[in-house]
Amino acid sequence: MDDERGLQDVLAVIDDEADRKCYTLQEQKKERRLGRYFSLLAAVFVLAPAGLVLYGVAWRAMLLPLAAGLGIAALLLSPVLFLSKGDTSK
Amino acid sequence: MKARKKSNWRAVIIAYLVAGAVVAAACVGAIGTAFREKLALGRAYGRFSQACAGGASRQELAEFARWADVEDVLLLDGQNQIRFSARGTMEGVLALEPADQQGKYLCDPARPGVYYHVIRSSVLRSLESMVEEDAHHEFEDEFFYLDGGAKKVYALHSLPNGNSGQRVFLIFSFAPVKHAQLLLRLTATAGTLFFMLYWALVALYVYRDAERHKLRGAIWGILALFTNLAGLLIYAVFKQLSFFCFKCQAVQNRGHVHCDNCGARLHGVCAACGKTIEHGAAFCPHCGKEQEPAEFSALFQ
Question: Domain segments of chain B: what residues?
Fold first, then answer.
């Protein structure tokens, strides 16, 4: 009886451990995938505008979307900044 | 623990700046070489217009007419009588009248098949039209295709010759710069490439730094990729408010006594109440007990 309970306990621990390991592996996989997305996006960010300019699109035409994008980003992220400023707890 | 290769950002920035300077110098050099005659013409025009402001002599008009793009330099009196033609191509009266409804072109009934496009401000203005290989025929294309072609369009610029009441007419036939369009496009591409490299480097810095601090580097990196300086600022503020292990730089909960990544001791413990206290604290923030410097140092040994 005690042996069976001990076995159940061990199985429960192993089950938890397996779940934890699965979760860790999934997280690592997700991280690697995100890392690949980041690399791909960075390459697109570098090559796409340069390619467009090489193709013949005026570089001046990209200034407006660039400025608008930066402005919107700053506007959207500003609440985070203001919230962060208030949080000075250590 | 897997050792992560430390990024040498100073070397990256220096390499980026050096490469940028080399490419910029190469582009400026190539453009300067390709446009050297046009730039020289621009400078010569500057000197010539100053000479005209004080009243240019016929010799000065003839000297300016030697430039490759200058078709002729005329000196006209108040009645549009040609007093001097530097290249001797014209004589008599230059009676210009609008050739089209918009008034973009002028023509002289005495010289059929010859049209003039007026450059109102400066010769340098027309540099733009020199860039395009096709721009040489732009005026003809726009206005004369329907007319069967075989007509010549010159650029015309006039300026007063001192206070004599006479006017100097500069007639240009701009030859396009060879491969200028390609050269300018390549320069613009190089500029865009370097600007976007800076953009990506900011994101890469955030990515690597976040990874170093055991944060989700890809998320921070993508945020910085889309928001650039705003994202970098947010990341800097986040870092300022976070607490990192002095040894492995992993982000830590402020209550941790030991780093959960490398095990390094992060805080001391008050001898009186046993609660965690900041490194270097003179008093315990929980019980108020004064911490002995020697005793405090011993905690970190």
Answer: 2-28+182-241, 36-176
